[in-house]
């Protein structure tokens, strides 16, 4: 009180009390106390505030003033050193935060006048088109590129090749994910000259639909179906799906067989006719304790009724899904993932050899995957054989995070596989 101030220090919590004689009111009880609070509240570490602090019990004598100035100088030096160290520690976090923020901002459709234009309806406009249009070159077929090592620097250079049947990829995310998870794949494919579209399924990404209200695979896949309806009559795409997105892919393949050149399943549910994703995962549920620990069932209609959605325990995301992925991608997923609708997971898929069977299928195995283990991937491949199988070594369940370059090379290679001769 009065002219007494509390001095903030990083080293001492409390010094012995001195006599209160000659002090201002209340000076005897507080003048000798030192508190470590500043080290716990970095936002207060501003050198502009230090001149207002006094470490003396009173300003009545010249000796106490000198002592206060010396103590204040020492505190300023200590705080400056600590603040400099804190800046170093927070620099990486700031970069990662800015990267994730820029990603989400750039992924959100917007106009020059507003972040969300008036004609953008979050519940239906859920396709992120490529920002780079397909280049129109000469020749009989569109050109793409593959990355080959550059001997001089150890980097990569672009090598043009011919023969892609189509230059357009459509990416379908897995359960709980959104179009945001493809940001590395989109960038790499665009650098190869492809046009890329990433779809947000209903209740995912920017969709405003409540996941608990999704009652069918058709409802969940609606944005993907709408995308195919909007394609030109003779336009074809390479359809790529991850995880539960494989079931949505298969549903679209049955409905739009003439618009899909190739279908690529990345550690995805590649279902046989009459099979559901729930049937598939029940095969290995007993042997996957981590899955049971990570899953959180949601009951919007009460626990007497079936669950309406499945969420993930955020504390187990790294171990379950992202055991090989960079920390920044784990952080992005932690704040972006949404629950998976349960009804579509339990719905049996009905496909025909005429439609679904007419499309060339390829499977990409993820070899360090704990969510869809390799034995389960191999069981799907055996029961519903694709044309060709690829492997991404060292990849967790999210190769677009953990091994983006390897995944990209495989996708480009698949795009170059020649068309079947009729």
UniProtKB/TrEMBL annotation:
GO terms for biological process: jasmonic acid metabolic process; salicylic acid metabolic process. Gene3D superfamilies: alpha/beta hydrolase. The keyword Cell division does not apply. Residues 1-36, 51-73, 127-158 are annotated as: Disordered. Residues 21-30 have a biased composition (Gly residues). GO terms for molecular function: methyl indole-3-acetate esterase activity; methyl jasmonate esterase activity; methyl salicylate esterase activity. InterPro entries: AB_hydrolase_1, AB_hydrolase_fold, MES/HNL. Transmembrane segments: none annotated. Keywords: Hydrolase. Residues 52-66 have a biased composition (Low complexity). Residues 169-407 form the AB hydrolase-1 domain. This is AB hydrolase-1 domain-containing protein. It comes from Thlaspi arvense (Field penny-cress).
């Amino acid at each position: 009180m009065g002219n007494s101030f509390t001095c903030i220090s990083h080293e001492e919590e409390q010094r012995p009390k001195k006599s209160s004689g000659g002090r201002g009111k209340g000076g005897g009880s507080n003048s000798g106390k030192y508190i470590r609070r500043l080290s716990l509240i970095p936002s207060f570490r501003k050198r502009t505030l230090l001149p207002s602090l006094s470490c003396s019990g009173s300003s009545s004598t010249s000796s106490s003033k000198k002592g206060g100035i010396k103590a204040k100088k020492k505190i300023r030096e200590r705080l400056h050193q600590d603040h400099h160290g804190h800046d170093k520690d927070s620099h990486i976090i700031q970069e990662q935060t800015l990267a994730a923020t820029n990603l989400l901002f750039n992924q959100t459709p917007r106009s020059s006048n507003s972040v969300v234009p008036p004609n953008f309806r979050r519940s239906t406009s859920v396709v992120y088109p490529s920002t780079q249009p397909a280049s129109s070159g000469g020749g009989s077929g569109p050109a793409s590129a593959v990355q080959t090592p550059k001997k001089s620097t150890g980097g990569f250079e672009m090598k043009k090749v011919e023969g892609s049947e189509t230059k357009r990829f459509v990416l379908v995310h897995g359960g709980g994910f959104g179009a945001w998870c493809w940001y590395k794949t989109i960038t790499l494919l665009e650098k190869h000259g492809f046009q890329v579209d990433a779809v947000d399924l209903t209740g995912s990404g920017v969709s405003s639909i409540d996941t608990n209200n999704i009652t069918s695979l058709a409802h969940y896949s609606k944005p993907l179906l709408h995308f195919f309806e909007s394609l030109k009559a003779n336009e074809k795409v390479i359809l790529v799906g991850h995880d539960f997105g494989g079931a949505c892919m298969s549903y679209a393949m049955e409905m739009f067989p003439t618009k899909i050149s190739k279908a690529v399943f990345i550690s995805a549910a590649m279902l046989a006719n009459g099979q559901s994703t729930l049937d598939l995962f029940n095969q290995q549920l007993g042997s996957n304790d981590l899955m049971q620990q990570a899953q959180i069932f949601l009951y919007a209609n009460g626990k007497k009724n079936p669950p309406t959605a499945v969420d993930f325990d955020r504390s187990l995301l790294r171990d379950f899904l992202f055991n090989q992925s960079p920390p920044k991608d784990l952080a992005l997923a932690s704040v972006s993932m949404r629950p998976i609708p349960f009804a579509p997971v339990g719905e049996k898929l009905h496909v025909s050899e005429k439609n679904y069977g007419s499309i060339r299928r390829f499977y990409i195995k993820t070899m360090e995957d704990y969510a869809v283990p390799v034995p389960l991937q191999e069981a799907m491949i055996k029961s519903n054989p694709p044309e060709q199988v690829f492997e991404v070594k060292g990849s967790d369940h999210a190769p677009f995070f953990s091994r983006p370059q390897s995944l990209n090379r495989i996708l480009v290679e698949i795009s170059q596989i020649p068309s079947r001769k009729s």
